[in-house]
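FORM 12-B: Structure-to-Sequence Request
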């Protein structure tokens, strides 16, 4: 029976340190730009520090999650992974009861609103999955835990165990790991692309059934997600985004998370010695968004070719606009929604506000300024009631004119937060 911790147990804290640190390599729950409170400076209810990540619930709330591994002692030997069997790192393993206890304790202290739990493979995929399910089941059934639970599932585990996981978890995820089957074979020989896809397909069927059938038991109501590593193999950005597009279409994924490969100690020679620039990961997220919500096709984002990489200096929408100047300028007062969504600097919410406002009066440049949009970026691409870009679109130095001040550093992506 779990009892609330009165004083921190040093052995448990050491495990937490190891297993929260090992979990930070998994990007499949999103960090966010939530307000930061730092427990290292004292105070209760911190959302900052190793071991905390954020996720969005189906009703749009942003929740902070305790993000840990059950163990980092894995019997598999995936070359890119710090927890692989041949890795020379301190190992630790929580018991099911310890994870349940920590989750409840942090929850009651208001540190977290849920749990993100993953694990190295312990004895077998089934044994590991059983342990993960036991944590979720105990939280829900023994302790009436109503917080958010995200379980990382093991693709080779039996469908029955995956089915049970979905009854207790809000979200399930299975990592596709790498964008190309050949790379997975080379770097993670114990894993199988086909098995991963089969497990995703099985989850999709159960998630769809639970949604369609009112009386069906709940099953992973926040859907399923996956993570793909960027920069560990030679896959170009077009290949990465092509795989993501295929996964969204085939398995109804809620999110594909892109995780820039970070070099690990004693890494295999097959891996690159340096991490890819963080901005590459950021550009992939922006492109993913354009593909899903802005009506762009893969060919528009990264045209096929020998060097099918995203532009690191310009965001993918701006990059497209610079390659397709004939599409512009777009009239802010007349253009259809789809055309406005293609204007660099205009997001979905701003476009919807523009459409609502222009019903009452023709929009002028000052009206756009009030919407807090990046005017410098917009100017060459938009016509308002009182302004046209004139010859701006034809200027040879247009790219320099619209690139953000401060360059790429000004656009860095947010990093994983920390609990300890
Ligand atoms: S199975 Fe997972 S934890 Fe184990 S080595 Fe591979 S990636 Fe790492």
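FORM 12-B RESPONSE
SEQUENCE OUT:
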């Amino acid at each position: 029976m779990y009892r609330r911790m009165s004083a921190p147990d040093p052995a448990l804290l050491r495990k937490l340190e190891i297993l929260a640190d090992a979990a930070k390599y998994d990007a499949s729950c999103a960090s966010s730009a939530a307000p930061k409170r730092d427990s290292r400076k004292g105070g209760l209810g911190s959302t900052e520090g190793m071991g905390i990540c954020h996720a969005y619930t189906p009703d749009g709330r942003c929740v902070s999650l305790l993000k840990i591994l059950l163990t980092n002692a894995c019997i598999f030997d995936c070359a890119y992974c710090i927890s692989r069997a041949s890795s020379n790192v301190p190992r630790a393993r929580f018991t099911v009861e310890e994870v349940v206890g920590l989750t409840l304790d942090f929850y009651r202290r208001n540190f977290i609103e849920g749990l993100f739990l993953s694990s190295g493979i312990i004895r077998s995929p089934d044994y590991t999955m059983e342990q993960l399910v036991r944590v979720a089941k105990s939280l829900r059934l023994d302790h009436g835990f109503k917080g958010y639970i995200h379980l990382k599932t093991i693709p080779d585990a039996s469908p029955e165990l995956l089915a049970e996981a979905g009854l207790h978890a809000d979200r399930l995820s299975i990592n596709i790991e790498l964008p190309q089957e050949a790379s997975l074979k080379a770097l993670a020989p114990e894993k199988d692309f086909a098995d991963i896809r089969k497990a995703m397909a099985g989850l999709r069927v159960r998630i769809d059934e639970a949604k369609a059938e009112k009386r069906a038991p709940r099953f992973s109501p926040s859907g399923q997600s996956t993570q793909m590593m960027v920069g560990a193999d030679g896959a170009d950005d077009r290949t990465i985004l092509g795989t993501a597009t295929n996964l969204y279409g085939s398995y109804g994924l809620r999110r594909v998370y892109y995780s820039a490969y970070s070099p690990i100690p004693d890494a295999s020679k097959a891996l690159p010695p340096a991490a890819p620039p963080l901005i590459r990961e950021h550009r992939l997220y922006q492109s993913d968004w354009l593909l899903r919500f802005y009506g762009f096709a893969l060919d528009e984002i990264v045209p096929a070719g020998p060097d099918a990489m995203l532009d690191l200096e310009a965001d993918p929408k701006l990059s497209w606009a610079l390659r397709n100047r004939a599409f512009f300028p777009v009239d802010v007062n007349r253009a259809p929604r789809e055309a406005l969504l293609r204007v660099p600097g205009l997001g979905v919410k701003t476009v919807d506000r523009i459409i609502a406002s222009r019903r009452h009066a023709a929009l002028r440049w000052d009206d756009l300024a009030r919407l807090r949009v990046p005017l410098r970026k917009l100017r060459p691409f938009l016509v308002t009631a009182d302004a046209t870009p004139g010859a701006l679109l034809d200027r040879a130095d247009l790219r320099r004119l619209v690139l953000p001040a401060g360059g790429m550093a000004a656009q860095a992506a947010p990093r994983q937060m920390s609990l300890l």
